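Changelog excerpt

This revision adds worked examples to the README so contributors can see how folded entries look when concatenated. The first example is reproduced verbatim below.
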Amino acid sequence: MVYDATYPLGTSDFAAIMSEAQNSGADSFIAFSYPPGSFGMTKTAQTMGYNPKVFYISVGGAFPIYPGVADGKAEGVMAIGGVDADSPAIQAYFERHAAFVGNPPDSWASAITYASLEMLEQAVERVGLDHEALAGELSTGTFDTVVGDVTLEDNQLRDLWWVGQWQGGAFRAVNPADKQGAAAPIVPKPEW
């Protein structure tokens, strides 16, 4: 690591941080940011012509509006999350979501939230509404969901996509690389 900085929530001018990152000589840029920061850093990097081999932002990168924020130049940008964009279940979910809401879902938390509701539905079908039985079923059962088969570990979903990347107009999961449905990452990221 050659540069490490923080910024206060609400920051809108990222020129100094991005300039320091660009001048550091690092071949990767990683920001653990929320959407306003993710979007601001993207716009600033584009304005500066900052093109590291890896450009990773956190929350906001998987949003369907991100390619517009990046002026149509999202290809190769990485962020938290991702989906198996070739999965028929994910494709059907995206179509239903867009038809109902009017916009596509994000490619991270939306499918996980929907999967949790599918789990609850299946658990109720199996054991009814008794709270103790329902909690037990959710803790130990295996559920067929939009993100695949889900079994909780210590009441947590741990089999998640950690890194996704914009590839060909979709935010595709790339890590864990050995998970079924993972796309090979594009490195270096194409220039803005």
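The second example, added in the same revision:
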Amino acid sequence: MASTTRRRALGTLAAALAVGVTTPQLAQAAESASKRGPAPLRRAHAHNDYEHPRPLFDALDQRFNSVEADIYLVNGDLLVAHDPIDLDPSRTLDSLYLAPLAARVKANHGSVYRGWRTPLQLLVDIKTDGAATYQELDRQLRRYGRLFTTYDRGRVRDGAVTVVVSGDRAARPPMEAQARRSAFYDGRLTDLGSTAPASLIPLISDNWANNFTWLGSGPIPAAERDKLRGIVGAAHARGQRVRFWATPDVAGPERDAVWTELIAADVDHLNTDDLAGLRAFLEAHDKGRGR
């Protein structure tokens, strides 16, 4: 995909030169295209990313554009783990995610994926008291200045990384009260159509199994297909993205069928623990569409 993008950009430059058009913008576009790395897989979401051998980096190697980390507030710091028994003081949100992302963005001159300005989503799932944990998260995010997408008195400015807060619902009130923040809120289907704007809730997530009976065997029931597309349409009309967790994640035709239906409905994030499996699926899907 990246090579196709470079060929198109260079072809545009050649055409412009052929008719005598030479501008600094065209030269810069050609230089940018020649330096651009592989495109991120914008739908790919690494669920429980921290459980992989190389948290964050395994997902980035597979070109995922969304990763998820569960956090606990312990002795004033944010530790990353799925269950309390797995807590390790050396595995902090800062050491596993924030500092490495800052270093990568600096090395790539402002982006997580070289030459691609689409922000990477860091979904932070709060497992301890939401208000207190968010307060510490907010403090840590502010250390990194302009690395993160920010909300400032009604305006959103994209950064290289967009932090979305999920998990304990008590995080929402302190977030809503802030005139300026470096994180956003992960809504549920009950938030769809509410008065809360996309500048607070850019993402709507929910449990697939709580909303649909179809798990990939046979065709999806027409009523469930209509429901899925209605959810996505309503969210997109408000500038919100959609993600479902608890979708089938065992390799096989059922998982592929669900993923295919999600893409057809234009669901924004496909949830998986199988990084290589989802990458292969998305690449095959794009190749089949001539991309």
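Reviewer comment on example two: The two ends are 7 Å apart (CA to CA). Residues 1-22, 25-33 have pLDDT under 50 and may be disordered.
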